[in-house]
Structures are given as C-alpha cells and as structure tokens.
Amino acid sequence: MTRRIREVRARLLVAAVAEDGMSTAEYAIGTIAAAAFGAVLYSVVTGDSIVTALTDIIAKALDTAV
C-alpha cells in the first residue's frame, strides 16, 4: 500500500510541475498584447497632431534652398 501511495504522490507531483501547454498560452497573451499595442500605435499615428507634425517635418526636409 505504501508503494502505491508513493506512486500516486509522484504522479501528482509531476502533474503539478508539468508545463505542457504553457507556451501556447504565453503566445496567445503575447499576440493579444501586440495587437493591442498596434491598435494604440495606429490611433496615435493617425491622430491629427501627429499627421500635421510629420507633414511639416517632411515638407521642411524636401524644401531645399538652392
């Protein structure tokens, strides 16, 4: 009986520390975070102040005095 309890305990211990499937969950969370960051970045870049600032920078860069 003691041997059987040790076997069950060993199996439970292995099951408790096993990380099968963790990489899939981590990839899913990383993908969601990247998509959220992309959405925030897109909304910032397409805002009026950023578009105006980038347009001014490009206009100044292309305006060359000969």
TrEMBL record:
Pfam families: DUF4244. InterPro entries: DUF4244. This is DUF4244 domain-containing protein.
